């Protein structure tokens, strides 16, 4: 078991209305028991998220938040670790492991998912998060499977188009922070430079906007044996000239004919952990690992060891994943003027979608998918 933190938007703080502004209460909670989005409310629904999230800390054995972590009446995973208050109710950990026993066990679960259309034109998968005490299950908040909606984006449930699943997905709660291990060479207008030698004001090459100055560069040292164990990418595995290591959720840019066919996009982001094949791309646990973060004026596509990756993404979930020192330094430097890099520069596909790409029918097709150098 390992300690895991999931950040959720509390359901009581989420505004749900019809498209003409009429409030619709309790839809998110009622969805636990059925397709409330379609059969209880005949109107399209508009959801507006709050600005802040609340942390839920729990034990996790496999790195995925699942629905019903039980074997019969016994709890097998996802037990609450720290007391938390959500929607005015306080939930406390319990040592119980049998649902009908005393004390009753307290677990965290992924209950349902629903696809919503963002006001930015992107589709987002909202997941209902519950806390169960014994047999009493309550939807306490929502998270997202895959891409997070940027601040200010409203979400619409569109009757006849949006899909609802009453069983929750296997949700990876690890916030996405693009991190490069020390030694990774970053492309600049003057050639490649190991990331640890870059400094504020240096220019780095970007795919979309040419040379851009570094506004902040920081680093975090973490336990490399945990879920943050680096992903080792051998030379040429993705078109990279040399081997490199990145954090599990570091996104790479994928493009090619199959990407357009499957996702209707010229190129998409996918996290490194979804490309693991245990041969040329694999987890590489170590005692400690130091990750470096590069902040530009927006979320940019940069080049590491010759392949297209990303600069620091400052969405709320990603910021929560930085260590305290790095996060505090950013706020001390920028305050309310922290650069708005909360919008991804390309669409993101989920881990399951990225994993499915490995099933490409031919080696040539697979190579086209995974080559992520200059487009």
UniProtKB/TrEMBL annotation:
<dbReference type="InterPro" id="IPR036844">
    <property type="entry name" value="Hint_dom_sf"/>
</dbReference>
<dbReference type="InterPro" id="IPR028992">
    <property type="entry name" value="Hedgehog/Intein_dom"/>
</dbReference>
<feature type="domain" description="Hedgehog/Intein (Hint)">
    <location>
        <begin position="178"/>
        <end position="315"/>
    </location>
</feature>
<dbReference type="GO" id="GO:0016539">
    <property type="term" value="P:intein-mediated protein splicing"/>
</dbReference>
<dbReference type="InterPro" id="IPR006141">
    <property type="entry name" value="Intein_N"/>
</dbReference>
<protein>
    <submittedName>
        <fullName>Hint domain-containing protein</fullName>
    </submittedName>
</protein>
<dbReference type="Pfam" id="PF13403">
    <property type="entry name" value="Hint_2"/>
</dbReference>
């Amino acid at each position: 078991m390992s300690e895991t933190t999931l950040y959720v938007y509390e359901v009581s703080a989420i505004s749900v209305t019809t498209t003409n502004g009429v409030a619709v209460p309790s839809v998110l909670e009622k969805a636990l028991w059925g397709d409330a989005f379609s059969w209880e409310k005949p109107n399209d629904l508009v959801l507006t998220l709050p600005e802040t999230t609340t942390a839920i800390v729990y034990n996790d054995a496999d790195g995925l938040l699942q629905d019903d972590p039980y074997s019969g009446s016994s709890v097998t995973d996802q037990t609450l670790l720290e007391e938390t208050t959500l929607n005015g109710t306080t939930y406390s950990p319990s040592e119980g492991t049998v649902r009908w026993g005393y004390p009753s066990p307290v677990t965290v679960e992924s209950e349902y998912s629903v696809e919503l259309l963002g006001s930015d034109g992107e589709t987002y998968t909202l997941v209902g998060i519950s806390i169960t005490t014994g047999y009493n299950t309550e939807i306490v908040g929502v998270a997202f499977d895959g891409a997070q909606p940027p601040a200010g984006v409203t979400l619409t449930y569109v009757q006849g188009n949006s899909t609802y699943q009453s069983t929750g997905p296997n949700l990876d709660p690890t916030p996405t922070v693009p991190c490069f291990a020390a030694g990774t060479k970053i492309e600049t207008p003057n050639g490649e430079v190991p990331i640890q030698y870059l400094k504020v004001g240096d220019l780095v090459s970007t795919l979309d906007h040419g040379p851009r100055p570094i506004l902040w560069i920081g680093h975090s040292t973490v336990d490399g044996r945990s879920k943050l164990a680096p992903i080792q990418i051998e030379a040429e595995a993705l078109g990279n000239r040399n081997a490199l290591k990145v954090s599990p959720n570091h996104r790479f840019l994928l493009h090619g004919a199959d990407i357009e066919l499957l996702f209707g996009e010229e190129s998409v982001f996918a996290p490194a952990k979804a490309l693991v094949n245990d041969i040329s791309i694999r987890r590489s646990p170590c005692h400690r690992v130091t990750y470096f973060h590069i902040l530009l004026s927006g979320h940019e596509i940069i080049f590491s060891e010759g392949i297209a990756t990303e600069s620091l993404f400052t969405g709320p979930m990603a910021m929560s994943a930085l260590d305290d020192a790095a996060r505090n330094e950013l706020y001390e430097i920028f305050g309310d003027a922290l650069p708005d890099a909360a919008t991804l520069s390309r669409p993101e596909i989920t881990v399951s979608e990225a994993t499915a790409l490995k099933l490409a029918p031919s080696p040539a097709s697979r190579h086209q998918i995974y080559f992520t150098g200059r487009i």
